[in-house]
Design a protein that fits this description.
This protein has 306 residues and is of the alpha/beta class. It has one domain. The chain is 42% helix and 19% strand. The protein has 14 helices and eleven strands. Strand 2 and strand 3 form a beta hairpin. It is globular.
């Protein structure tokens, strides 16, 4: 029995999950190869690198959209978390440190916020549009994503986990926006990076042979975020909806620590929310978020053991 424990002391986003799983021993080349089974690799490139966050060496994972060369992977989602700095991501790698600043600019484009929550997601997309990329992605309907996953040659377990996470996020978005699941457009979630973060997490868990997933409670941050629909509270409505049933932890960081994609991954995968479990530790991984905080490392820690 291989157990994986998510230690989310700084929240969770899709890019942080992938970075942490790669850092704990996931094979990035296998990830790239498996993701090609979704047949949309002409839209993105993947980048990962070691960065130091407040003294902790961690892995920063980014999705760079080919059209613009902007990577936003993190952007959104994590983004959010990190405020969107992701955008910067554009700079993508930079990111890491990125200290956000850079990004920030980017966001400026506006998305930033946007992502913030996918829900808003949509909205953003538009913005992004600003930049343009989003065209396609922006409008991937929930049913298109389901079809893409089902028709791929991914392992059955990978398909099953990916579909469950998308359904969880899609239902939350639909509830917030008053739409049935089949009408939900994954602006945000359908965005290329959300597909990569969600399916990529399922691929890496399968590759690492994880049988049980446990997690700490999840800090969501505080404050407000700007999205296309206006100024929203943190956690964003869709994120909070996805986290029903999950223990949320109060946090004084004025930022969106947990993004909808991160919330979907943790809520679907976790068998038990608990303090650090008794286990013989075999591997540890740190996944970097986009944002850098003054007094604490913005990383997600995963511990794998028996």
């Amino acid at each position: 029995m291989k157990t994986l424990y998510f230690d989310c002391f700084s929240g969770i986003s899709g890019d942080m999950v992938i970075g942490a799983l790669l850092d704990a021993g996931g094979d990035p080349q296998k990830l790239v190869k498996e993701l090609k089974k979704l047949r949309f690799e002409d839209e993105y490139e993947l980048a990962w690198q070691k960065v130091v966050k407040n003294g902790i060496t961690s892995t920063k994972f980014d999705v760079i959209l080919k059209d613009e060369g902007n990577n936003h992977s993190d952007e959104y989602e994590h983004h959010h978390e990190h405020d969107h700095e992701h955008l910067h991501d554009n700079h993508e790698h930079t990111h890491d440190h990125h200290h956000d600043h850079e990004h920030e600019h980017i966001h400026t484009q506006g998305h930033s916020h946007s992502h913030g929550h996918n829900h808003h997601s949509h909205e953003h997309e538009h913005h992004n549009h600003d930049d343009g990329h989003h065209h396609h992605h922006s409008h991937r309907a929930y049913k298109d994503i389901v079809k893409m996953i089902k028709e791929s040659e991914l392992a059955p377990e990978v398909k099953e986990i990916s579909l469950k996470i998308f359904k969880k996020i899609g239902e939350a978005e639909g509830l917030i926006h008053g739409l049935p699941l089949e009408k939900v457009h994954f602006h945000e979630v359908g965005a290329v990076d959300s597909i990569i973060d969600i399916v990529g997490a399922a691929i890496l868990l399968h590759q690492l042979d994880i049988t049980t997933v446990k997690s700490s409670s999840v800090p969501v941050g505080t404050g407000k975020i700007h999205i296309d629909h206006g100024i929203y509270p943190v956690p964003a409505p869709a994120t909070l909806e996805i986290l029903k049933g999950v223990p949320i932890e109060q946090s004084d960081i004025r930022f969106e620590l947990t993004t909808p994609t991160g919330a979907g991954i943790i809520s679907v995968l976790t068998d038990e929310f608990c303090s650090f479990p008794s286990m013989k530790v075999a591997a540890i991984g740190y996944g970097a978020g986009t944002k850098t905080f003054k007094d604490r490392p913005n990383v997600l820690r995963v511990i794998i053991g028996e």
